[in-house]
Amino acid sequence: MKKLINSSENVVCEAIAGMATAHPHLLRAHLDPNYLWRIDAPKPGRVALVSGGGSGHEPMHGGFVGPGMLSAACPGEIFTSPTPDQIFEATRAVSSEAGALHIVKNYAGDVMNFEMAGDLARMAGIRTLNVVIDDDVAVKDSLYTQGRRGMGTTIFAEKICGAGAARGYDLKRLADLCRRVNSNGRSAGLALTSCVTPAKGTPTFDLGPEDVEMGIGIHGEPGRRRVPFAPADELVEMLALSIIEDPPYSRRLREWDERLDTWTDVEITNAVFAAGDRVIAMVNGMGGTPIIELYIVYRQFAMLCERKGLSIARCLVGTYITSLEMQGVSITLLRADDEMLELWDAPVCTPALRWGM
Amino acid sequence: MKKLINSSENVVCEAIAGMATAHPHLLRAHLDPNYLWRIDAPKPGRVALVSGGGSGHEPMHGGFVGPGMLSAACPGEIFTSPTPDQIFEATRAVSSEAGALHIVKNYAGDVMNFEMAGDLARMAGIRTLNVVIDDDVAVKDSLYTQGRRGMGTTIFAEKICGAGAARGYDLKRLADLCRRVNSNGRSAGLALTSCVTPAKGTPTFDLGPEDVEMGIGIHGEPGRRRVPFAPADELVEMLALSIIEDPPYSRRLREWDERLDTWTDVEITNAVFAAGDRVIAMVNGMGGTPIIELYIVYRQFAMLCERKGLSIARCLVGTYITSLEMQGVSITLLRADDEMLELWDAPVCTPALRWGM
Predict the structure, then answer these.
(1) Which one of A235, B58, B88, B191 counts the least CB within 10 Å of its CB?
(2) Same domain for A241 and A255?
(3) Domain edge (last residue) among B215, B235, B270
(4) Is the torsion defined by CA of B104, B25, A273, A173 positive or negative?
């Protein structure tokens, strides 16, 4: 294993120290517990947006801290959930009286620890709501997850809700918006190679020289099936149709009910795409994929969307949610309404996503 | 070899078609000959900025086409220079009466073909000047190069001169600015792994499991030496000191002399860094390097600059000039004066570099 690190124990703290050094006008790093937070937080009258999850998926989430997006990000160790106290400390550091929205990818550890952090925050008098992102169509129930996993829609939710928070949306309205983004987003990914975590030092999973893992999870969890390696257009068609033709999906979810002051189970049915929909599209490299390949993927993805009558209103092509140096790609579609598009276009200034500022 | 491509022959044309589909408000793709050009070019009274080089280094150069940066980019096949007629056609498509500046990385094929393209352009009545970037301190004379190779300073030159062009600098002033940026920029890179070109299908060079190639070229050309794998801080120190302590460097260069109407040899001596200098710093992933590692590298690089009395005024940390999926990193420093910093901060809107718009 050759990695540009000093020791596997210090990867996360050295990287977030490096981020704070590189972007001193945007964010600061707090060490032990580890979190990155905006230099201008908390902002009176504005809901704080806090996300987090295992490290190794950069630029998510630390790369999205800044005006117009996240207030704080809590990086766990590589592929390991952040702890409840870590999330709570970050939440307390950035929250005003308007409270905090937690955006949580659906992995068992993340969901549990963000719930506990929400409890800690409420005990400290900070209003918080958690919204879980579960947009990956690949599998229902997985190695680390009940229900679908959280993937690329997380980026869309953080951008759109970040703009809503900057405009002064209250906590309830922001949580509703975040749920709506999640309900209208779908992702799927594939891997050509495994990644290697610094602690383990060997590939996370085995994949033959002619095999592709369709529906890969962002920690290398198994997907739907292995298929023989094929031209990009064929692989992208499999991925794209799996999200465009995804049937309605119902899920049970624990949500904090402010009225009852308790966690309650709610049933949510997610919508699907239809001809005439406007969408925001993302082609995302998994960390080790050359950019030239991402545009070959986008070309085919855009053609398939057009063939299905979907109109791509905005797009991202790049590296946004990764698995260390894994070679592969994920694609995401969000059915976007006017409000989402307007919030998408609002200015944002973070290390990894920036426009209008 | 597993790559997200359809055939090795169509990689470049499909990728630039994908770029034009993804960024229709910024650029168009011309196929056969291949180039990407701004939708609003030519701009009357403004010098056009044209660059190019082999593909496989994305986002350079196509990712830097747009307001505030390049007018056009000419991608050759993977690791292959663009042809003279290709560069000429792109230049003609984007040039107004103010002429065109060609920014050329110092590789023998690029230099020769841009010179021939300059001749073709002048025969067609288009004023052009070529500036060669040769900032890589690793080796003098290399596999494909006489003198030093062109590397990360290319990005700085394209951004800063792009802002100058947008402000109406004339051709002579812009070429002088570009030369000044080149004279004040230094880069060095290292590789942990080789890349694989689609046409060859096997690694470009062999590198043992415990070896690091210090001073790697962006096509996998040999560097200064192989060193045993070591902690990131040690490797970064070797790289950083090689550029910070680089002695003055003289080179002979062919430049178009408008007065004599001919190519003439000129002698240029490049400057070096000293305590008290303000610099723009870049940590650049070679394509397959996880972002978390780039920030570990930046942390150490920034500490070394501080120790040497260099003040980092601006920085970039990300993936800007790559060798397909190669794992490794390059670092670049530019000694920046007030004019360069002001032009650096000017708005830019391209697929890969964007702020203020």
Answers:
(1) A235
(2) no
(3) B270
(4) positive
Q: A317: which chain B residues are within 8 Å (Cβ-Cβ)?
A: 18, 22, 351
Active site annotation includes A219: yes
Predicted confidence at residue A145, as pLDDT, reads 77
The CATH number assigned to the domain holding A331 equals: 3.30.1180.20
Q: What is the CATH number of the domain that holds B131?
A: 3.40.50.10440
| Spatial distance between the Cα atoms of A287 and B171, rounded to a whole number of angstroms | 40
Residues B171 and B296 in one domain: no
Of B18, B292, B355, the CB nearest to A11: B292
Do you find a cis peptide bond into A209, omega within 30 degrees of 0?
Answer: no
Is the pLDDT reported for residue A220 higher than 90? no
In-domain check, residue A341: no
Decide which of A133 and A268 is more confident: A133
| pLDDT above 80 for B142 | no
Q: Is B203 a member of any domain? A: yes
Same domain for A218 and A162: no
DSSP-assigned letter for residue A150: P
Measured in residues, chain A has a length of: 357
Confidence of residue B267 (pLDDT cuts 50, 70, 90): confident
CA distance, residue A252 to nearest chain B CA (Å) = 34
CA nearest to B319, candidates A235, A104, A180, A325: A325
Mean pLDDT on B38-61: 98
CA-based end-to-end distance of chain B: 40
Which secondary-structure segment (H or E) carries B342?
helix B338-345
Measure in Å the smallest separation between the Cα of B59 and chain A Cα atoms.
7
Whether chain A has a CB inside 8 Å of the CB on B17: the answer is: yes
Considering the domain boundaries, does residue A348 fall inside one? no
Asked if B259 and B135 sit in the same domain, the reply is: yes
Range of the domain at B214: 187-245+274-335
Residue A224 confidence class, pLDDT cut points 50, 70, 90: confident
Contact B68, B347 (CB under 8 A): yes
- Domain assignment present for residue A137? The answer is yes
Read off φ and ψ for residue B249, nearest 5 degrees.
Answer: -130, 125
> Using one digit for the tens of pLDDT, what is the confidence trace for A196-211?
999 999 999 999 999 9
Residue B147 has pLDDT above 80, yes or no: yes
